[in-house]
C-alpha cells in the first residue's frame, strides 16, 4: 500500500524571545507530536548562511577526482560519494542518492584529544582551489554550536532540569559536533523501487540543526509502526533552522511518551503537556525521517551534536520512577556512535 503523504505543521520557536516559559511549552508540544520544530532569530545572518551554501556548492561542483582526494577517513572526516551511506537497508535497493562532506571539531595531531575517534584534524580542500572555504566552514561550525547551546537550555528546562544541565563538560562542554554538507544531484526518488535521496532513519545523537535551501524533500513519519506509514513533508521556512531530537536524547528521556496528539485540540494538548510534566513523564521522541528527491538539485547542511566521547548516556533522574524504570541500559557515547556509523556507511576498503 502506498505511503500517505501530507504537510507537517511544526512549532516555531523564537530563540530571541524573553518569554522562556512559552518557548519551553512549544518545545514540549513538539516533543509530543513529532520531535521536529523550527527555530528563528537564532543569531546567524541570512547573508552568512547564503555564503555558506555558496561555498558548499563550490565544493560539490569540483570534479569527482578532486573530491575523491578528500575521501572520508576512519575518523569520519571528508567526502562521502553518492551511494556511500545506506540508512534504510530493509527498504533501499542501493545507498542514498546524495554526496556529502564531514567536518568535525578541529584539533592538531599533537593534541592528546586528537586520538579520540571523533576528534582530530579535518580534511580540507586546498586554499588555491577553494579560497576561504575552510575559514567559512570553521566559522559556521562555531556559530551553529552556539545555536545548539541555546536549544539545549530549553530542552533541559523541558525535562525539569537546570537550564545549564547540558553545558557540563561531559555533555556539551566537550561535544562531538559534526557539520555535514549534503548535495542531492536531482535524482527522482521512487520508494516502490527502493530509491531514496536519504533512506528512512532517526538521527544518532542529542540534537540536529538543519539548514536547507528552498527545495523541499524532507519528510517525517511520526508513527513508524503505523500501517500504512504516514509521511509528512517538512517545508523549508525562510531564515529558520529545522531542529530534530536524536536517539541519545530519547534514551536520556526514557522514551516514555509515544502519544500522538495531532487529532486533539490545541488547548487540550497544552493541558496534557502540563499534566504529564507534573508527573515527571518525559516527552522526547526520536522521529523517523527521510529525503525524497523530486528531480531538483538540493543542498542541505545538517549539524549533528552529541555529548563527549566518555559520556555515559542513561536515563535522567527526572524521567524515571518506581512505576517507570529505565527502558535502556547505560551506553558510552563513543561506542554508540561508532556502531551507528559502521552500520550505515560503506567500508572504506571498498574504495581501494
Automatic annotation (TrEMBL):
InterPro entries: DIOX_N (IPR026992), IPNS-like_FE2OG_OXY (IPR044861), IPNS-like_sf (IPR027443), Oxoglu/Fe-dep_dioxygenase_dom (IPR005123)
Family affiliation: Belongs to the iron/ascorbate-dependent oxidoreductase family.
UniProt-recorded name of the protein: Isopenicillin N synthase
Pfam families (alphabetical): 2OG-FeII_Oxy, DIOX_N
Segments traversing the membrane: 261-279
GO molecular function (one): dioxygenase activity
Ranges where the Fe2OG dioxygenase domain occurs: 175-307
Signal peptide, first to last residue: none
